[in-house]
Amino acid sequence: MLGLNKKDTSLFLLVLALVVFAPLLLNPFPEGSELAQFNAGYPDLMQRFLIFGIFAVGFNILFGLTGYLSFGHAAFLGVGSYAGVWMMKLLTMNVIPAIFMSVVFAGLFSLLVGYISLRRSGIYFSILTLAFAQMSFSLAYSVLTPITNGETGLQLALNDPRVLGVSQVDGSIPAANFFGIAMRDSFELSMGGWLFTFNAGYYLCAVVMMVAFYVAIRIFRSPFGMMLRAVKSNQQRMNFTGLNSKPYTLAAFVISGMYAGLAGGLMVAMDPLAGAERMQWTASGEVVLMTILGGAGTLIGPVLGAGFIKYCENIFSKINDNILYDWFAGLPEGLADFLVFVIHPFIGKGWHLTLGIMFMLIVIFLPGGIMEGFERIGRLFKRKPSSGESVSAKTSTTPAE
Amino acid sequence: MDAILLQILNGLDKGSAYALIALGLTLIFGTLGVVNFAHGALFMIGAFCAVTLSRLLSVSFVTIDETRKDFLGNPLKVETPYVESWFGPEVGAAIIDWSVPLAILFSIPIMALVGLVMERGLIKHFYKRPHADQILVTFGLAIVLQEIIKYFYGANPIPTPAPAAFAGSFDFGALVGMDPNVIIYPYWRIVYFMFAALIVGAVFAFLRFTTFGMVVRAGMADRETVGLLGIDIDRRFTFMFALAAVVAGLAGVMYAPINSPNYHMGMDFLVLSFVVVVVGGMGSLPGAVAAGFLLGILESFASMAQVVALFPGINQIIIYLVAIVILLTRPRGLMGRKGVMES
């Protein structure tokens, strides 16, 4: 289907189904029950799953395929966000021009950064991208304040021109919309104890995500993708065969930068503001974490990684000591106190500690990320196949460098 | 002329910190071949050693002085630090006052231990893994260390004053025979610079003039051959890792009075120190030190009012800009050796 082979088609359909029915699937616990706090089926969080999924899928095209570890991808997301907000300020509240210009600007910026950074490889490349990202971050905070509005962040205002739309509706800023469908419109479905929210913005993200995912599959399976993998496995040998690998890596860099811009544009479409902190290097680190956690070089891994990190972030930051005491209500008091004392540093504000530990454990024990974990579990349950097959299974999951 | 001198002096303290951290990074990279993203965290832990010691020293017990009244008319509660009751009020007060320099002694064993545990427990398993994996795992470790410190010490900066003897500023200009009151410079910064110079000198002397240092240098040049000669090079490299941790820690201890320690100071310095290492040349110790001071001073020149008026925002990005230019024109950095990180 759509030029995909059978395996990829089923993968694509699986992701499609997951994304379409996410509002149902992510709300497994009835409203008002003890476990309702583990639900993830509300629009804000689901949008973040998809947006960061797109970001990670794009990052994976660079890192997973070519092995170039960029520590500055958040800069492209930030540039995309700023471009998107400006479109909404100047042109119209329709999200299409905003998203489109986000991609264009992020693409142009990544072309510039990539052209310079890709002259070096290895850790030098990482440092160069990091330097560019930090430079954009500092500039967005200081000199570029007329464009970025500095520390406050760029926001919409009542007196923005919006030449194709209206400046204000009834004295308030018009809502971001897709040809009249407001992004924050939701359809709520109540079934028994369950409440499902189908949000317009979420489904816009879903469509964009599926397109982005489809393009990523095609890139992975194309001769171009094969070339990128060749760069990763041995760039020197590529050069010896008389092939200039730079255009390929640069193309990969720009594509992944455009994915980052797309994510930035969607962020703006969902919530029309942009701040410089989106470009900080910790934000770049986050997307690296997502990709590694899910499994670099695999198709669906980065999406899973993004979803997993965003979900954990949400849940872990929400849990507090009282909730813990509720859980341990059945235990003797001393034991409950002790357990809460032990768990306390890892929840709430300590979520980053959990993230750091999780990340270290993944890198140490499971360099292929969640996908490698699945693979290993699958191998446990499968009867040992013939040796030739196991070798091929192994090479296909080799972690990215 | 004095404006130039002033900027050079201003750049020295940051430059010293960059140089010390970059020195440690290069030591680790040159010996173990590991890219350590957790090095900034070591710097931060050092600074918090100073905080911890100054808190420990001022642990007090409360006595009630019936003869005096506080403003509510109740008997006055007097807090006396244990140190003062043990050593007498004057010596005790002096000890508390000198807590930051004392923290140097306090931090050396701690940092060495942290370094050893880190190397044996984690880094050891990453020698053969790709650089990307090393970056990632140490990045994770840096987050963990940072969050642990945040958990115990909170997110706010903790002011840690220098001894009263070094509190003020002095007239540097008058000292070198220029007009008085032109170049006023804080005492502690000059102390910091001298301290950094001392540490750098000590590390270089150690590598240059001791047998141990000679073996380490040989190992840096050709690890395999040194191993074949029957020398346990791994153990020496582990020691060097601990040494690098101590250097970073000491840089942090002494930096505490300049900038109140907070949990993310390590990350802030780490990015810049990496840039410094790359500019100096990966694997070159003199390069790291020289680039540290150079970039510190450049940064302070770029923040001069005249320069900022000419190129707005230049003070924020000068270091990165220099790094980009250097990497593109001299990929090995200022003093990089051939064959390091080139594949």
From TrEMBL, chain A:
Query: Is Ribonucleoprotein one of the keywords?
Result: no
Pfam families, alphabetized: BPD_transp_2
Keyword Transmembrane helix in record: yes
Q: Which InterPro entries match?
A: ABC_transp_permease, LivM-like
| Mode of membrane association | Multi-pass membrane protein
Where is this protein found? Cell membrane
Q: Which residues cross the membrane?
A: 12-29, 49-71, 91-116, 123-144, 200-220, 247-268, 288-312, 324-347, 353-374
CDD domains from the UniProt entry:
TM_PBP1_LivM_like (cd06581)
This protein is called what? Branched-chain amino acid ABC transporter permease
Q: Which organism is it from?
A: Roseibium polysiphoniae
TrEMBL record, chain B:
Q: Any idea which UniProt keywords this protein has?
A: Amino-acid transport, Cell membrane, Membrane, Transmembrane, Transmembrane helix, Transport
What membrane topology does the annotation report for this chain?
Multi-pass membrane protein
UniProt keyword annotation of Transmembrane present: yes
Task: Cite a single GO MF annotation.
Answer: transmembrane transporter activity
List locations, semicolon-separated. Answer: Cell membrane
Single GO biological process annotation from the record: amino acid transport
Where mainly found? Answer: membrane
Carries keyword Protein biosynthesis?
A: no
Pfam families hit by this protein: BPD_transp_2
For this protein, the record's PANTHER family field holds: ABC TRANSPORTER ATP-BINDING PROTEIN, BRANCHED-CHAIN AMINO ACID TRANSPORT SYSTEM PERMEASE PROTEIN LIVH
Q: What is this protein called?
A: Branched-chain amino acid ABC transporter permease
Q: Which domain of life is it from?
A: Bacteria
